[in-house]
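ok trying again, last paste got cut off:
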Amino acid sequence: MTAQTILPANSASSGSFDVANSCRFDGSSASMKIEHDSNMNLLLMTWSGWIKRSGLGAVQSIFAGDNTTGSTGTLYFDANDKLNFQNVSGNADKGLKITNRVFRDPSAWYHIVWAWDSANSTAADRIKIYVNGVRETSFSSSTNPDADEPSQLGEADVATLIGTYVGEDSRFWNGYMAEVVLIDGAALAPTSFGEFDDSGIWKPKDVSGLTFGTLGFYLDFKASGNLGNDANGGTDLTESNLAAVDQSTDTCTNNFATMNPLDNFHQATAFTEGNLKLVYTSGNRTWNTANVALSSGKWYCEILKGETQNDTIGIHYKLSAGLTDRPDSDSGAWSYLGGKNADNGGVKTNGGTITYTIGPSDSGDIVGLYLDLDNNKVYFGVNGTVAHSGVGIDIPAASTLENGHYYIFGGSDSTSQTMTHTWNFGSPAVAISSANTDANGFGSFEYSPSGTFDSASKDFLAICTKNLAGDS
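nice, full thing came through this time. structure:
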């Protein structure tokens, strides 16, 4: 099975240690905090976490000390997508690092380690930042803390914040976090948390045996009803605007597809819920694509329809090239026109006429897309019923296409109505009642990805790195 991402994601697909869960933060209100009545070791601490960005070009806090804007410690991405750490005391920088490097791949999982060691005799080693096991050394701005400068993170009676900034009401994190660790009393190397495999990919290690210190914690996000649970047995963090559905199986060891916010120049679509919920702008009659291009294998996804009049769902071999580059009339597109009040649930093949009718779908319906690139077929279903008793639509082999692959897409075909789709490539952003997995045991779907198609038993798979790599 082969595929390619639009941008190369540094995402582990296999290894001896699997991370089961992450937490999805919505970028508008979700966060966590913990407050203690005594100081952490303010001269010696480490933060480690795996992150997957969903939004770019905005200030987003990974963690912070909830003191004041004039006295705080915070690790964050700025509006230029550079990684920043600031330790501010009395409105003065007492430790500052701003990378020259930018981080603009929303399909990648990054591992970040920040170590504070202000007692270190080497000034340049008092703050260390590592990304994917490699130390960051190129900074646009850099101020080393004075010897024995206290960190503004971890002070008594001051909350440590995850996913937000001072006042708990700004700079919200938009994306996923996994394996979040705060070490009290030690400045650890990234090898405490990860390792390079034989192919040179940085992968996570089991951290449960680490010494977390008196006030350190470990968030593994395995308890959906208590996402702030300290897996080390300490005091749990308090969650704000997080629910069980924000537990995700999209992790640094099994990276799931999402819709691609980088393919949004013409569409101006609103992306939320970890790039899984899309609201298509009225008047922009074009499409958005998923962030994995597919050229072989059998793949499944579900689309929960919200507001819908003239929406489109399907496959295309290319990206949108214009505001009115409509998939229903664009050569190379196979488009299910599912609007309840228009098009009558037909499929336009290769941008031509409707030759295959499924029936309309409405708000609250779930559309299933089954893509068989081994036999060059595409199938559509509504609420678990595959059209025409599982007889599919013939499509060209991916190898014959201009780009050699297909993109899964969704969009609008209306000049006046907004459309809403919530996508599920196996890691849903909405509650699932059935929780069907694929044949390899991956994903969570409302309806089964397996069944009889064209009189043959076929297993369609969730779009994730373990399946793309052929792991099971």
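cool. The two ends are 13 Å apart (CA to CA). The helical segments are 465-468.
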